[in-house]
Amino acid sequence: MIVVRFEPSGLRCHCEGRVSLLEAAQKAGVAISAVCGGAGTCGKCRVQVRGEVTPPTPVERRFLSAAELAKGIRLACQARPLSDVVVTTDTFVAGQILTRGVSRSVEIDPAVRKRWIELNPPSLEDNPFDWEDFRRAVGGELGGGAASLSFLRELPVRLRRQDFRGTYVAVEGVVIDFEKGDTAGEVYGLAIDLGTTTLVVKLLNLASGSVEAVASGVNPQRVYGEDVVSRIQYASASSRNRRELQRAAVGALNELIRSVQREAGVARERLYEAVVVGNTAMLHLLAGVDARYLAQYPYVPAFRGPLRLSAREIGLRIHPRGRVFLLPAIGRFVGGDTVGVLLATDFLQRERLTLAIDIGTNGEIVLGARGEAVACSTAAGPAFEGATIKHGMRAEAGAIDAVWLNNGDLSYHVIGGGEPRGICGSANIDVVAILLSEGIVETSGRMLPPQELPPSSSGDLRRRLRMGPEGVEIVLAEVGGKSITFTQRDVREIQLAKGAIATGIRLLLDEAGVKLQEVDEVLVAGGFGNYIRPENAIRIGLLPAVDPDRIRFVGNAALTGAEMALLSRKARQEAVRIAEKVRYLEIAASPHFQELFAENMLFPAADEVPAMWRPPR
Description:
The chain is an alpha/beta fold and 617 residues long. The protein has five domains: 2-88, Roll (Ubiquitin-like (UB roll)), CATH 3.10.20; 112-179, Ubiquitin-like (UB roll) (Roll); 189-326, Domain of unknown function (DUF4445) (Nucleotidyltransferase, domain 5); 346-380 and 503-608, ATPase, nucleotide binding domain (Nucleotidyltransferase, domain 5); 383-493, no CATH class. The chain is 30% helix and 24% strand. Strands 12-11-10-13-15-14 form a six-stranded mixed beta sheet, sandwiched between helices. β23 (471-479) and β24 form a beta hairpin. α10 crosses α16. The termini are far apart.
């Protein structure tokens, strides 16, 4: 038995056999960035080790310098402990997690019902039944009059202990509790955004609609892979793996729930319902449902939804008989999070043609107006979140999140101030836009070496260029003898990601038989999209070349949709109608997909982007 202790968390794993440090981290519940899911292709799972481990592998020698290896820096997916070891990992912080989105008012009418009732004590003359008397006292609010079995088991004793008086609680017509005293004003629920990378939990007062507390954090499932396909593959290997992933998500959500409970001063027993939005794969993993066929041709999910679950059944720490409502999906990879965006933005009621884009690992795109819409999903990959970029990182403390030209040289902003540790997605777009505008990157994506640069290129930028192990690269910053660079390979990663999004947009336009010029407004949703600069996104071809005034950032609209469905039964019904109404387009089945993808891999030429929408020099 070998003990692996992880710092600074203090968590331990008692390991049998020759497991990797990444596998030990997974067992201990320690979040280590594993973009490739442990395949040894990304080099992101860097840790520092004290103790005896296996010698460096060829994979480690490719990603780590001799100086780093001498300091005990290793790749967690490669190194295996030979004795008790101490492993120091990066501390993941919430960073720039977007917890707010566009607002849309709703009439407060939640699925949770609470009311004080009094029953007549039974007598021989009445020929009573406890449950029938209870239903009669409640009246017509229960509809069919259902109750959970565990509640029925408690009802006879509870009635008599409370002298046949109390506050009944029902969720969607199912009675879950009969509380002592008049607690009708204490009714709360949770809106949850279950993202691939981040988690957000909001605690709402269901009587007033007010937000009482918000908490956010990093999804610990990232230790099993940065993208959903890697996680599905891990979960599909065994039922034990599937339970591990489910416990990781639920455990993190429970920590956030405890946080909002403490902040709002609300007891767990007063949280009666949670409404969850997330992509199709994430909702499968939360429910513990086998999602392997979602990652295999022809990509079939186990369910579409809406799904109503028992909180106890999945381990979510709200009221013991509380309910969990999962917003339905539109298609294979267009999930409940997109439905939340469309609900929050009143998408189907818009008179003018509108394009909605949620840019992330999976880019969801919807085009429509006047009650008609078509949606698709594009596999953009994690480049925009920094995962496949050499010095890429999340938008957290130490990340360069904005880059601009200042008197012919690069200037940048670092989240939290201080020295930079890497570069996040919004800055990746800035860099590519600048390199294109300065003639350093061609429309093909080739980065020119200094000797090939046009005379108009800035001398300061020219001095930042150099040859690296992956071809030409530009130095963004020098910190403690280490260079933070943007490489030729990084340009290619951005090309692939933006090409996927642009192809999805083009195919939706073709499917609807409309031109880009007819689009009245472009809605950009999601945490990443909220921080990009539209002129730079237009310059690289990520967003269509429309007037930036027609681009509207709607923030975490998916979470807003979850809030609406929590507060309003009418909004919940609308979400279900949206999922049924919006057509799903499988773009990979298009005979023009490969041709259009190759075309959209190219960056726009300078004359294709009006000067007013180019990055300022």
